[in-house]
Design a protein that fits this description.
5 strands; 5 helices
Length: 207
């Protein structure tokens, strides 16, 4: 009986390890950074992109990839992201589950250890019976969560540069538009002006 139990445990562990390896292989191919945690916030799985994104810069460095990663198996995700953000997102998902929402996802924006702006999307991981209890203590409740990370630093910086260019263009053309308007209003207000005077205002508009 003991040998039979040991064999079943061994087979179950082998299946779990196989599924974990398949999931790890799938995550490694994703273009986004992905971290899988249990409900206590312990890291169970992550891909190389997440490890690269969440590296801590060395002293005096600001770029990524310059220091050790804060992500590791068994480490707490709260060492990377603010605990309150994670807890709030998890509670938001639980509340939506209680309301009957299918496939709820929570999101928030925060900063990575090296200062990048990161958008985080959280999806719940359920127990063996996802249709039953919908809390962390139930057999089918939320037993963990998946974080999908997207570095939006360049996107935000591009938007800021675009806004600055538009503002500069507006300010640069304001004086010219004012001159055109003044010339047009003058021509309209004085229809009897000489040809030389009219041509001078038309030249202002052309410039």
């Amino acid at each position: 009986l003991r040998k039979d139990v040991e064999r079943r445990v061994h087979d179950a562990n082998a299946r779990l390890e196989q599924e974990k390896n398949r999931l790890a292989a799938l995550m490694s191919e994703l273009a986004q950074s992905v971290i899988v945690c249990n409900v206590e916030g312990r890291v169970l799985l992550y891909n190389a992109r997440a490890m690269q994104l969440l590296k801590k810069p060395r002293d005096g460095a600001t770029a990524t990839g310059k220091g050790p990663s804060l992500v590791g198996l068994g480490r707490s995700i709260f060492a990377v992201f603010d605990r309150n953000l994670i807890i709030h997102a998890l509670e938001n998902i639980r509340e939506r589950l209680r309301q009957g929402t299918q496939g709820p996802v929570a999101s928030f924006v925060t900063t990575a250890p090296a200062g990048q702006l990161v958008r985080v999307q959280m999806a719940p991981v359920f127990g063996a019976e996802p249709g039953v209890a919908q809390d962390a203590s139930g057999p089918g409740g939320v037993t963990g969560f998946i974080l999908v990370l997207d570095d939006i630093t360049r996107r935000i910086e591009s938007g800021r540069r675009r806004d600055l260019l538009v503002q500069t263009l507006t300010q640069g053309t304001r004086a010219s538009l004012g001159s055109v308007r003044a010339a047009v209003e003058t021509i309209a207000a004085f229809p009897g002006m000489t040809d030389d005077e009219r041509n001078r205002f038309i030249g202002v508009i052309g410039d």
